[in-house]
Amino acid sequence: MTSRPGEVVRFRFDGRDYEGRRGDTLAAALLANGVRRVSTSVQLGQPRGIFSAGGEEPNALVQIETPFPEPMLPATTVEICDGLVATGLPGKGRLADRPDPARYDTVHAHCDVLVVGAGPAGLMAAAEAARGGARVILADERPAPGGSLLGTAEAVDGLPGRRWAAERAAELDGLADVRVLCRTTVFGHYDDNYLVAVERRTNHLGAAAPATTARERIWRIRARRVVHATGAHERFPAFAGNDLPGVMLAGAARTYVNQYGVRPGRRAVVLTTNDTAYPAALDLAAAGIEIAAIVDVRQAPGEEWARRCAERGIDVLTGHVVTAARGAGELSSVVVAPEDGGQARDVPADLLLVSGGWTPVVHLFSQAGGTLRFDEEIGAFVPGDTQARDVRLAVEVAGSARGVPTLSGCLRDGAEAGRRALAAAGFAVPDQAPPPAVEDEPAAAPARHLWLVPAADGDGDDYREHFVDLQRDVTVADVLRATGAGLRSVEHVKRYTTAGTAHDQGRTSGLLTSAITAHALGLDVADLGVTTFRAPYAPVSFAALAGRDRGHLHDPVRVTAMHDWHVARGAPLENVGQWKRPWYYPLDGEDMTAAVLRECRAAREDVAMMDASTLGKIDVIGPDAAELLDRLYTNMMSTLPVGSIRYGVMCRPDGMVFDDGTVIRLAEDHFLATTTTGNAAAVLDWMEEWLQTEWPSLRVHCTSVTEQWATVALVGPRSREVLAGLAPGLDVGNASFPFMTWRDAEVAGIPARVCRISFSGELAYEINVRSWYGLALWEAVNAAGVTPYGTETMHVLRAEKGYPIIGQDTDGTVTPQDLGMAWVVSKKKADFIGKRSFSRADTVRPDRKQLVGLLPEDTGRLLPEGVHLVEPGGTRALGHVTSGYRSAALGRTFALALISGGRERVGERLHAAMGEEMIPVTVTHHVLYDPEGARRDG
Amino acid sequence: MTENLPDHPDWLWAAAEPKRSYDVVIVGGGGHGLATAYYLAKNHGITNVAVLERGWLAGGNMARNTTIIRSNYLWDESAGIYEHALKLWEGLEDDLGYPLLFSQRGVLNLAHSLQDVRDSVRRVHANRLNGVDAEWLEPEQVKELCPIVDVSPDVRYPVLGATYQPRAGIAKHDYVAWGFARAAAAYGVDLIENCEVTGLDVRDGRVTGVRTTRGPIAAGKVALCAAGHSSVVAAMAGVALPLQSHPLQALVSELLEPVHPTVVMSNAVHVYVSQAHKGELVMGAGIDAANSYRQRGAFHIIERQMAAALELFPVFARAHVLRTWGGVVDVTPDASPIVGLTPVDDLYVNCGWGTGGFKATPGVGWCYAHTVAHGEPHPLSAPFSLDRFTTGALVDEHGAAAVAH
């Protein structure tokens, strides 16, 4: 085995160059190169080696440096590629300091039967399900199907296990309705058989990875039935020195020999509690590793195994234990002694294989809500009844995942699980096929469950070298200290010791921790239980979970039909909800202040235009549309004549303003309600929540039509003249087209609905067209010499008029009355949302915060929004500035504020507290411009 | 080698058997229940107290939160109780004689829209007037404090600034719970685990005891501290609480070399993250919209949270999620807690802390113990009475509800 077959792959580890073979894991390649110390333990700083051959690895954690830095992966799962650079970790990983160039993706899939694990049981389950015509997905975390067969090299149907598995998987993959996913870890089992998996697509390719292929992708799978064929992890007993490099799970050593052609050592001792270490020892011996002894804690190993060992000249010491592993930095000898206390001897060895039995991988089953029961025969927790009361899972568990000990048993069990899944999913179950043949399967002797090997005198007898959780450096002494502190729950012991909290989440140590705890408390581990299994089953990268929802795909970017025009005109954009809105349109040399003052003047003195398309628009249609709106808005909507428009306010049940907007009556049974830009979805949700949960009898449908319309607000004393020019067919006279009405018309040759609405106090129109005409309309209006303005000018104009912005001048604690809008609250309606709250003690307090205007004594001083007001000399906050602007119309700065008892304070002098500085202001009525409303009709 | 956590003491508490009666029975052995027991004993000399826990002590939200401690709340009422808590946190390690890993590394609350900025500046001003340390930071100052935050304009919702509370930070939740438990037990409080309350005995409008899976227990007073299950327990005495329970999830990464020196929260992008003492990133997700008493949420919430995390912290891309979990949060209509008396005499309620209960632990324990001991609210918790939902005197901490026109 010194020159292994296969394609050479060159990699670097801890600063040294090595060669491995294509298909090697980093762990296998390191072992092939004689590297035994791979990482450093997290708390004690001791060298650690390679303990397992799979994802359960507690020791050999590495940092990937090249192709791209990735923190903390088990060397046992990293497939080497040319140019791979990795280092052993001292407990902590390191993140890259540059952006990850890779792409990540997400796939949705549905199937009749999802089989998790492509070992013997999983392959059979998938094959049976597929044979019955089900849509099947078979997923396995390893690069190739086969599961345990990859490591044991047992023969099935006369073929080497690996080949048998590959052929079965290839057959399945060839079927139209079957998908076989390798390198795919199912890591979460959620409600209603929703499972999530991560597929690693390019890691093993290194630099050869196609740039267009997603590095990892998340599979979101909905399955009618799930077969958990997740296998079992080998475990180990606690004995002194069990953390030394050179101590390895027996099954892992067997895997290195059989799957990778790698000898993990030269001279091995085997410590076992069961028969499965015997074939491992025999395979190692066949590969040229000297087996110094098999130390079997039982008196009676399986007879056939014992015979074969004798035949090979392997010494089997029954009734013996390993009391200590010894070595400086790595294993050099093993102390072997009869368990009943006879003479101990020191056996030189560089490899100690341990097998403490096999623990079913029940993580997903437990995540799914399945309960576990302790199986005395295998000494571990296994899945309980899937149909127990309050459980009822659409799940089968097959093979060693439920404690089936033999290969032939797993093959049969898998087939049966596949057939059960078929039947449960409603398929006709085909006739049973003969099971694959397994020739060499000697009868097994019972295992013994040994958790803790006491040390011989003087050698680790304080249990500080008996490791329970190798990754967290937790020893038996730590567990005993936890129970000694009074702790009785395994969850507490976990938190006291940190056992089970590391990268491996206690895969090899969880049961051992429970068993040692139970032992210390004099309890049965079956009663004590284990800590909760939680998703993900294996670590999954943040980036994979984020998928494509990053950058500009993080949240939809919504733009209006006129967006490109705004951008071309150099308007800075403001995020308002998901929308991008033009903030202001600076001319050459203008800053924001100058631009906004100019835009304001245009609207007040001439004519200006704004893109108002982002306002939410909801069609409310049906015989009960008016009734619904009467219940939602504080004011009456049912009396609105067709052709008219009414402003309305919606409150929450607590009476606090939630949204506002106009309601247009298009027909007896058809209204169009507008909402604030950011609240459109929330308002539609609100309508639907009431309709669906409280008022299902109302015959009305609500539909978002925000994006179906483009809206141009045309504002200013000259707006009527401009509109008349653009819409020669429309009678724009004040009497024939009065305020708060709408007309259908052709504007610039485009069919439009023109509303006479004003959010500035000026004569104004909102011209609505189908959104694909939006830009044409905008350009036509602009061509008439109209000044465009953005959201900032809109804010100033409305604030001068004392119109609140919901969410800026309100914060969910403000009633319509607080805003000076008692008039919008109906006194006639029997009920509407919020009505009862208006009579509550706190809602009628005279000192509630009310919307007022503020004029700084320094007319050039801009009041920052958010600053608080106090009485001169006082420190108690009376309220805060909600909006503050420079006003072109007023020729000074001004603000809106919510002030306790504000309307009674009009004329009072207050201080805006800017830290130490006090800015004197005078309280005014909140309508500062055109309080008599003279400008509305032009 | 990495920074090791300090050892827990050699002795914590003895598992107690329930007695037939107590002066005070506290229902719920989480952080709030344990802190209440501790301050009942320490401040009020009431030690004939049992804390009943249906599972293992501090195994509910106390074991599931993201350990953020801050007091920069908007309203005077909230600032009062949270700042009281923060001041107690500042002396708690000495008081309890327990290492709590209380780390005042500061908390940043990011602003991503102009309205976020307005709300944030408002909160800073309000905090200062209330004696709570608070600063407004521009994006470049955010970057200085936490270099890994992407403050570039390229992200979907760019960082426009942040509020910063330097005295805020994190602590280690198990240590906090066990510190209170150990100290309470030392005063003679009985900590009774695996003891689920199945009924409340009410006679003539007065609570007289609790029924449990370990038998009936008479009580002079009963103090509920049942977090996500508060409405279920209160209903046993016929008290309806205005609560909705939701799952709230969180997660941790593997241990990483230090990258994140502070705590960053973003309401708009829905992520809050710190790096715990051991080195793992601790991150909280958004709340599940569905009501549930189950300690598990939907997976898309986690996916959404990862997208948000990478939006703000691109360097997290190849960190791994090691473990996710869920707690059950009880949310009131105004997103503020309920602490105080109930319509049933001698029955007290502490609930509705939503996502913010951990940081309040010592403060609420202090005030609730006072309330239970005196039969009337502590001044700092008085605004959080149950009857505010009748009077309308809400303490709305939802923040601004909407954005601009």
Automatic annotation (TrEMBL), chain A:
Residue span, FAD/NAD(P)-binding domain: 112-372
MF GO annotations: oxidoreductase activity
Domain GCVT N-terminal: 562-829
Segments forming domain Aminomethyltransferase C-terminal: 849-930
This protein's record includes keyword Oxidoreductase: yes
Alphabetical list of InterPro entries matching this protein: 2Fe-2S-bd_N, BFD-like_2Fe2S-bd_dom_sf, FAD/NAD-bd_sf, FAD/NAD-binding_dom, GcvT/YgfZ/DmdA, GcvT/YgfZ_C, GcvT_C, GCVT_N
Keyword check for Metal-binding: no
Record key words, sorted: Oxidoreductase
Domain SoxA A3: 465-548
Similarity remark: Belongs to the GcvT family.
Protein name listed in UniProt: Sarcosine oxidase subunit alpha
Gene that produces this protein: soxA
Automatic annotation (TrEMBL), chain B:
Domain Rhodanese: 24-68
Cofactors named for this entry: FMN; FAD
One GO-annotated biological process of the protein: tetrahydrofolate metabolic process
Keywords: Cytoplasm, FAD, Flavoprotein, FMN, Nucleotide-binding, Oxidoreductase
Domain of life: Bacteria
Subcellular location: Cytoplasm
PROSITE patterns linked to this entry: RHODANESE_3
Gene Ontology cellular component annotations, sorted alphabetically: cytoplasm
Main location: cytoplasm
Catalytic activity: sarcosine + (6S)-5,6,7,8-tetrahydrofolate + O2 = (6R)-5,10-methylene-5,6,7,8-tetrahydrofolate + glycine + H2O2; sarcosine + O2 + H2O = formaldehyde + glycine + H2O2
Pfam families reported in the protein's UniProt record: DAO
GO MF annotation list: nucleotide binding; sarcosine oxidase activity
Documented EC number(s): 1.5.3.24
Coiled coil: none
Enzyme's top EC category: oxidoreductase
Family: Belongs to the SoxB family.
The protein, known as: Sarcosine oxidase subunit beta
Organism annotation: Sphaerimonospora thailandensis
